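Why do we care about 3D structure at all? Because function follows from shape, and shape follows, mostly, from sequence. That is the central idea of this module. The next example makes it concrete: a single protein chain, its amino acid sequence, and then its structure expressed as tokens.
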Amino acid sequence: MSGVTRSVVLGICKESGIPAVEARVELEDLENAEEIWITSSILGVQPVVRIVGMPFVFPGSEGALLPKVQNAWIDSWNQHFATKDT
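And the structure:
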């Protein structure tokens, strides 16, 4: 599904050299994923930690790349949308 947050996160990944794959997958395919994220205009970038009761545990608890992408998302949001005192 297209969206502003999704587009920004894909841009962050591209600029940072982080491979990002969008694909239709089966639940079994997720067992081999290194990290799984979801994007939301309200929550930004969040880890997927459970699907249909199946837990996902990544190295470093949330995955190695997630904090980098979350911080870049926050920086981008602040740059474009945060109000500034005059």
